[in-house]
Design a protein that fits this description.
Keywords: Nucleus, Ribosome biogenesis. The protein is mainly α and about 425 residues long. It has a domain at about 5-50. The chain is about 45% helix and about 0% strand. The chain is elongated.
Length: about 425
C-alpha cells in the first residue's frame, strides 16, 4: 500500500539531461516524510522548530529527591555545616538609625510603654501579689538554706515516704585540716625558690639541682631494692614448690605397695595406763599454758591502757595544733599578707589524708643546664597553674584528693570506599 502511494522514482540516475529524467521520475520520498511529520506536529500542538525555548525546555531547580537521598546517605554532612545551615525565622534586629526613631537632638527615641501595659506585663512576669507572697526571699543575707522548713503533709499522699529534712553537716563549721605533718598552715600561693627561676642565681640553682638529684637517686635505689626483694621472694616460692612436689613423689613411692584393705585389717593396740611421771609432765604443761594465757591477757590489757594514753596525747596535740592554727589565721587576717617560704622546699605531709587516694606529687620545676636560655625569645614556658592550684587546695585541706577518671574506650569505625565498578555479574544465557 505504501508503494502505491509513493511517486515513481528512479533512485540511481546517472544523468538528468534526457526527457526520462524529468519531474515524474525525481525521488520525493524525503519531502513527503517531512511534510507528514510537520502535519503530525501541527496536530499535537504546533511545529517544534517554530516554538520558543521556554516552551520546549524547563530548568530543574529542585533536583531529584532520590538522588539527594542517596547522596545524603553516602556523604553525611558535618555537624558544623548543620549548625550553620540553621536559620531563625525571626528577622535580625536592624541596627541602622532611621529618621523616624530619632528625636530632635539626633538621639534614639526610647520605647514608650503605657502604664496600663506596664502593669499587665509586670503581672505576667511576677504572677501578681499572690505569687510574690509565696516566693522565698533568698536574696537577703538572713536567708539560711539549712534552716528547718515546715512541710505540710497532704493526706492524699500519706502512703508515700516522708521527705528527709536537710541537715547541716558537722564539718561545715570546722576549719580545714592542713596536710602538713606539723600542722602548719600552708599558704594558698607559695613563694617559689630562687633556683626555679628561668634566669636563676648560680648558687641557688646549684643547691636546688643537687637536692632534686639526691631525691631522684634515693627513689631509684628504693625501686631497685623493691625489685630485688620481689625477685628473691619469687625464687623462694619456686624452690618451695619444687621441694613440695619432690616430697609428694617420695611419699607416693613409699606407699605404693600398700592398700586400704590391709590397713583396715591391722589390729589396734590397747592404750596403756599412764605412769605418775607422765601425769606430772602433763600437769606441768597445762599449768605453763594457763600461765602463758594469763600473761598474754595482762599484756593486752597493758597495751590497751598505753593506747588510750597515746590517743589522749594525740587529741591534746591536735587541740594544741588547732589553737595554733587559729592564732596564725587570725594573724594572717590582721596582716592581710600570705605566708611564704624562703627556701621553697616541700613540707613533710601527714601519713593519713582526707581521702583514700594519695596526694599527688609536686611537679619537678628544675631547669637543667642545657635548658637555660640567655634570651626571652628562646624561653619555653613550663608548669601548669591549674594543677598547682588544685594541689594547693588539697594541701590546705579544702578538697579531698581523688583519682583521675580516664575516658572509656570508644568504638572504632572503619571507613572504606566502595568500588562500584566491581559489582557486576556475567549474564549467562
Amino acid at each position: 500500500m505504501a508503494d502505491a502511494e509513493a511517486a515513481p522514482a528512479q533512485y540511481k540516475q546517472p544523468s538528468r539531461k534526457g526527457k526520462k529524467a524529468w519531474r515524474k521520475n525525481v525521488d520525493v520520498t524525503q519531502i513527503q516524510s517531512g511534510l507528514k511529520e510537520v502535519r503530525e506536529q501541527i496536530i499535537q500542538g504546533g511545529v517544534v522548530a517554530e516554538k520558543p525555548s521556554d516552551q520546549l525546555f524547563a530548568v530543574d531547580t529542585i533536583g531529584s529527591a532520590d538522588i539527594q537521598k542517596e547522596v545524603a546517605r553516602r556523604h553525611k554532612p558535618l555537624k558544623v555545616d548543620e549548625i550553620l545551615a540553621q536559620r531563625s525565622a525571626v528577622p535580625a534586629v536592624d541596627s541602622r538609625k532611621r529618621l523616624a526613631d530619632l528625636d530632635s537632638e539626633g538621639k534614639r527615641k526610647k520605647a514608650k510603654v503605657s502604664g496600663k501595659e506596664y502593669d499587665r506585663l509586670r503581672a505576667i512576669a511576677y504572677g501578681g501579689e499572690q505569687v510574690q507572697k509565696d516566693v522565698v526571699q533568698t536574696g537577703s543575707a538572713e536567708y539560711d538554706p539549712w534552716a528547718v522548713q515546715e512541710v505540710k503533709d497532704d493526706p492524699k499522699f500519706s502512703f508515700l515516704e516522708k521527705k528527709k529534712l536537710k541537715v547541716e553537716p558537722s564539718t561545715l563549721k570546722r576549719a580545714p585540716i592542713s596536710m602538713a605533718r606539723d600542722g602548719k598552715i600552708i599558704p594558698a600561693v607559695r613563694k617559689p625558690a630562687a633556683g626555679k627561676s628561668y634566669n636563676p642565681d648560680f648558687q641557688a640553682w646549684q643547691e636546688l639541682l643537687t637536692r632534686e638529684a639526691d631525691k631522684a637517686v634515693e627513689a631509684e635505689k628504693k625501686r631497685l631494692q623493691e625489685a630485688r626483694e620481689e625477685a628473691e621472694r619469687m625464687e623462694r616460692a619456686a624452690v618451695e614448690s619444687e621441694s613440695d612436689s619432690g616430697e609428694e613423689s617420695v611419699w607416693e613411692s613409699e606407699w605404693e605397695g600398700f592398700s586400704d584393705n590391709e590397713n583396715s585389717e591391722l589390729k589396734k593396740k590397747r592404750p596403756e595406763r599412764k605412769t605418775p611421771a607422765q601425769r606430772n609432765k602433763i600437769k606441768r604443761r597445762k599449768d605453763a599454758e594457763r600461765l602463758a594465757t594469763h600473761e598474754a591477757k595482762v599484756k593486752a590489757k597493758d597495751q590497751q591502757v598505753q593506747k588510750i594514753k597515746e590517743l589522749a596525747k594525740s587529741v591534746a596535740e591536735k587541740e594544741k595544733a588547732r589553737a595554733t592554727a587559729k592564732e596564725i589565721l587570725a594573724k594572717m587576717d590582721k596582716a592581710n599578707e600570705p605566708l611564704s617560704d624562703d627556701d621553697g622546699e616541700e613540707e613533710e605531709l601527714r601519713r593519713r589524708t582526707l581521702g583514700k587516694a594519695p596526694i599527688p606529687d609536686a611537679m619537678l620545676e628544675v631547669v637543667l643546664p642545657d635548658e637555660l636560655r640567655d634570651s626571652l625569645r628562646l624561653l619555653k614556658p613550663e608548669g601548669n597553674l591549674l594543677k598547682d592550684r588544685f594541689r594547693s587546695m588539697i594541701l590546705r585541706g579544702k578538697v579531698e584528693p581523688r583519682k583521675q577518671i580516664g575516658e572509656g574506650k570508644k568504638r572504632k569505625y572503619t571507613v572504606s570506599e566502595k568500588w562500584s565498578y566491581k559489582d557486576w555479574e556475567l549474564n549467562k544465557k
